[in-house]
Amino acid sequence: MKQGKFIVVEGIEGVGKTSNLNLIAKFIQEADQQVIVTREPGGTPIAEALRGILLSEFDEETLGETELLLLFAGRLQHVEHVIKPALKLGKWVVCDRFCDATYAYQGAGRRIDIQRIAALHRWALGDFAPDYTILLDAPVETAFERILKLRDLDRIEKEKHSFFERVRAQYLEIANSHPERYSIIDAAKPLEEVELCIKALLKDIVLTN
Ligand code: Z5A
Asked: Which of helix, strand or coil describes residue 96?
């Protein structure tokens, strides 16, 4: 049986992660591979319940460290109950966000020490990691213009502009430090152009597997 791969799509809100997930899944299916599409926070009943807590507003401040613990609690459920079993069956897994989102949002955004995040990450997941990550990158203004046309902002999205500039910068730093497992796509371009870039990238990842 051919081994499946774990592909993650990252980026700030509104860059088009959700819009492009199905395109990626379809491309993989057309290469005769089985694929599941999933997301973080979420992906299992418990992790989806934790997502609800993470994105909701309470009459009590949600500490950055609490976000961090909730995220890794949900992630452990997701990895053990969904991602690893699918990979074991030879399926590909396409996931909307994963651990690098935590380094970007809770690390750079909330300013939690990266070493503390890394220690929790190792404790929870060991060396389990995506095979490939696609970073959709666009200016914060562009991304928020898109979101604001669609819906109200959730608790995290109500953070200041500077928070999202730090998140975006951290994503770019991670991607530039790991060119072997990351591609950066300019998501400020029209969707059709972004789709063409993703398809070109997938040809390398999927068809050479
Ligand atoms: N979070 C965290 O803090 N730490 C973590 O470790 C993790 C997550 C995993 C939920 O994430 C929150 O959790 C998120 C980070 C935090 N909150 N914040 N802030 P999420 O992934 O569920 O939510 P999101 O990023 O806010 O998703 P989104 O709103 O669905 O954005 P998107 O998926 O990137 O965009 P989209 O839905 O595909 O597109 C938005 C609109 O733009 C839509 O109308 C599209 O048609 C349009 N679009 C997309 N691409 C284009 C292009 N290229 N041109 C023009 N228009 C476009």
From this structure: strand
CA 22 remoteness from chain centre: 14
DSSP state of 139: -
Cα dihedral sign, 7-45-137-142: positive
Answer yes or no: is the C-beta of 10 below 6 A from any ligand 1 atom.
no
pLDDT digits (tens, 9 = 90+) for 126-155: 999 999 999 999 999 999 999 998 888 888
**Residue-wise pLDDT tens digits, 65-83:** 999 999 999 999 999 999 9
Q: Is 156 in the pocket of ligand 1 (CB under 6 A)?
A: yes
Closest residue by Cα to atom 52, ligand 1, is 191
State the angle between helix axes of 64-78 and 114-125 in degrees (0 to 180), rounded to the nearest 10.
20
Ligand 1 atom nearest 12 alpha carbon: 25
**Residue closest to 136 by CA, chosen among 121, 146, 150:** 146
Alpha carbon distance 13, 27 (integer Å): 23
Closest C-alpha residue for ligand 1 atom 37: 18
